[in-house]
Specification:
This protein is of the alpha+beta class. It contains 24 helices and 19 strands. Bound molecules: adenosine-5'-diphosphate (ADP) and magnesium ion (MG).
């Protein structure tokens, strides 16, 4: 009966590494091969068009239709030279992932044949039938039009012989229906706000960029095993499965040697990344078995985010070439670590100054502290919102599970920064600002040159950490669109910087000198935002209590966490910065609640099916096998011996019966709870009902199925077990 399981396990364990075609050239030669980057633009566009396009990108200026037409010609030529046959507007709808609708370049030539054409109009704007994308009620069904519009700041690329043009996606009435639109608005908002503040220190600053370096964690599972697990196929995570005897206790996987099959996959993936201009740099094993990480060199946030989305889609494709499936779910396996996507975030000026890096002069340090403290204040004021920005049905399994950040946003600064903040708080003069940055440390080993001690200690329990020259937002989920977190953060920081600047200007107007004005406002902010600063153990129970006392948002129910988007403080902040309107916020929350419900609904259905059609029948068979056995034993032995021999067996039969009856009862209850929840009109209330009434039943059902897994004959068990899914040879 479990033939399938044994077959797939054998297939998976026998699998060898797939050969990778390594290009003969070095990465410099093929890096960006499929990207319409500046080098290609220069080659394929008339000089005048090239200059106009580069100027529009660098100075955020509009592009005329004629120039767009000229760009379209060059882009088409380049795409066709590289084998493309189709083009698509590539955008990020409010569901997960990316969307694309392909059109061939062909058009009638009037003589019964075709020509390949492409125009500025098609490049700049398209009107995909948008009725099936979630919109949260913004569009009526009779007005299903949505527009995608070219984002000139992210270069077009070729994927699978299709020219992909990164675009925003908006409704007929101009509201955003995607992640990119508000992300771009937030990037502009933080640019404007931070530039104005940076000019106190250097009047020549024209722009401030926001940078993102994501670290993508993921699991790999052999495709044969994956296919034999309906839960993985349908929901991306295991809904049942007892922990394996060995999992991550020995911590022997972290940074361990990478298995050869996986190494081949990683190499293949990196080559693909580099061809698409994704600067993949770091790879390693993660803590959990079968868990890995890929990190690129950081880039401007919009581009970095496009690259992350692109990575997530090519990853799945490359994995299949290696007979793997990638799991981007935040918690594919209970009992071992889940996957996150650390978002390393920083701001830097067009003059080359990293605003979260300490400098060499007192004024540079004052600038560093100005930006760090404003970022901290933004996180403090909007901690509930930032938590909402990373929350989802899937990430909920990971947060607060004592292996990932807790579901409370706080900031870890490390002792170096904490000392500086302390010093400023306690001082009444700006004279203390001459702190040195790093101390050289000699190890006393002649073979090892002097090393620099990192200014920051590591604290893995913090959701938001200062790491020397940037902040690391660690609570982001592995399957998330980084834009959700980044747009909230950029907007909040922009708003904080705007209000900071207003206060400084008021002081200057009263005749206070700049250094003192800055110093005084910084100190006030440090004192005000102290509750967000926490360097201790984020996993501890004491922290929960303390965070609550500090007034930080401690909500754990995801549908209620989303309420933070609709707090007055959030609505006003998004309005002031122009990042999202109230209508957009309301619509997006409708989508979030609906998505939450749908995910749980699907999981609950799959679990019900696994319970009733896979596990209960097997348990019944095993039980009747035990009963048969008892009857046979009974025929062989006298009564008292029989009683002695079968004591345990009787107990087991009873236990199995108990587990089965609970499973059957709870499946019925779960179905009933779903029926009740489905009748609720409000998306918010419905999502809460799923959270409160459906999820707990699922947990109970799983608990009893996992118990059965331990009792039932291994030969009979129908689904690959954790120990089989999790250890790639
Ligand atoms: P960790 O030790 O935290 O796992 P990694 O080397 O895996 O570090 O990843 C660090 C990430 O941070 C990389 O993507 C890197 O490009 C990015 N990063 C480094 N400096 C900055 C910065 N100033 N701004 C944004 N991202 C940065
Ligand atoms: Mg890392």
């Amino acid at each position: 009966m479990s033939d399938l399981r044994f077959k797939v396990v054998e297939e998976a364990f026998d699998r060898k590494a797939v050969h990778v075609d390594i290009p003969n050239e070095r990465p410099e030669a093929y890096y960006g091969k499929y990207v319409f980057n500046r080098q290609k633009m220069f080659e394929y566009l008339p000089k005048q068009t090239y200059d106009a396009l580069v100027n529009a990108i660098d100075n955020k200026e509009p592009l005329s239709r004629e120039i767009a037409d000229s760009v379209a010609q060059g882009m088409k030529k380049w795409a066709i030279d590289n084998g493309a046959r189709h083009y698509t507007h590539w955008f990020h709808p409010l569901t997960d992932g990316t969307a694309e609708k392909h059109d061939a370049f062909i058009d009638h030539d009037g003589k019964g044949g075709v020509v390949e054409t492409f125009t500025g109009k098609l490049l700049v704007q398209q009107e995909p039938d948008a009725s099936s994308f979630p919109n949260g009620g913004i569009r009526n069904t009779f007005e299903a039009r949505g527009y995608s519009a070219w984002d000139i700041s992210s270069p077009a690329f070729i994927l699978d012989k299709t020219l992909c043009i990164p675009t925003i996606f908006i409704s007929y009435t101009g509201e955003s229906l995607d992640y990119k639109t508000p992300l771009l608005r937030s990037i502009n908002a933080v640019d404007k706000a931070a530039t104005a503040v940076a000019r106190y220190f250097d009047p020549t600053v024209k722009h401030v960029n926001s940078f993102l370096g994501w670290e993508q964690e993921y699991f790999l599972v052999d495709e044969a095993l994956y296919s034999a697990r309906p839960d993985l196929v349908m929901t991306g995570r295991t809904l049942m499965g007892h922990e394996s005897a060995k999992n991550q206790q020995l911590e022997d996987h972290y940074f361990g040697a990478i298995p050869s099959r996986v190494e081949a996959f990683m190499l293949d993936l990196e080559i693909e990344c580099h061809k698409l201009g994704i600067p993949a740099k770091t790879r390693h094993n993660e803590v959990a078995p079968n868990q890995f990480e890929l990190a690129p060199i950081y880039e401007e946030t919009n581009l970095a985010n496009d690259h992350n989305l692109l990575l997530m889609s090519i990853m799945s494709e490359v994995a299949r070439r290696h007979n793997f499936r990638v799991l981007l779910h935040e918690k594919p396996f209970a009992g071992i670590n889940g996957s996150g996507k650390h978002n390393n975030w920083s701001l830097g000026t067009d003059t080359g100054v990293a605003l979260f890096s300490p400098g060499k002069t007192p004024m540079q340090n004052l600038q560093f502290i100005t930006f760090v403290v404003n970022a901290m204040a933004a996180v403090y004021r909007h901690n509930g919102l930032l938590k909402a920005s990373i929350s989802s049905a899937t990430n909920a399994h990971r947060l607060g599970a004592n292996e990932a950040p807790p579901a409370i946003i706080s900031i870890f600064t490390g002792t170096y920064l904490a000392n500086i903040l302390n010093k400023i708080e306690k001082s009444d003069s700006a004279d203390i600002l001459d702190f040195s940055t790093k101390e050289g440390m000699s190890l006393g080993l002649s073979q090892i040159p002097e090393i620099l001690v990192d200014n920051t200690d590591r604290n893995r329990t913090s959701p938001f950490a200062f790491t020397g020259n940037r902040f690391e937002f660690r609570a982001v989920g592995s399957s998330a669109n980084c834009a959700s977190a980044m747009l909230a953060l950029n907007a909040a920081v922009a708003d904080e910087l705007n209000s900071f600047k207003a206060k400084i200007d008021a002081r200057l107007a009263k005749g206070e000198d700049l250094t003192n004005a800055l110093f005084n406002e910084i100190r006030a902010l440090i004192i005000e935002t102290k509750p967000i600063h926490f360097d201790g153990n984020g996993y501890s129970d004491e922290w929960r209590q303390e965070a609550e006392a500090r007034g930080l948002d401690c909500e754990t129910c995801v549908p209620k966490i989303f309420d933070a988007y609709l707090l007055n403080s959030s609505i006003e902040m998004f309005k002031r910065t122009g990042v999202l309107s109230e209508v957009e916020l309301e619509a997006r929350n409708e989508v979030k609640w609906e998505m939450y419900t749908k995910k749980i609904q699907i999981e609950a259905r799959v679990l019900g099916d696994l319970a009733m059609n896979h596990i209960v029948p097997v348990a019944t068979r095993y039980q009747s096998f035990l009963v048969d056995n008892l009857v046979k034993i009974k025929s062989l032995f006298p009564e008292e011996k029989f009683a002695q021999f079968v004591e345990q067996d009787l107990g087991n039969i009873e236990k199995i019966a108990g587990h089965m009856s609970t499973i059957k009862r709870e499946v019925e209850n779960m179905v009933e709870e779903r029926r009740l929840a489905n009748q609720i009109e409000s998306e918010r209330e419905k999502a809460i009902a799923y959270h409160d009434n459906v999820v707990p039943r699922m947990e109970t059902i799983r608990y009893h199925m996992d118990k059965l897994e331990l009792m039932i004959d291994n030969e009979m068990w129908p689904l690959p077990k954790y120990r089989e899914l999790l250890f790639i040879r």
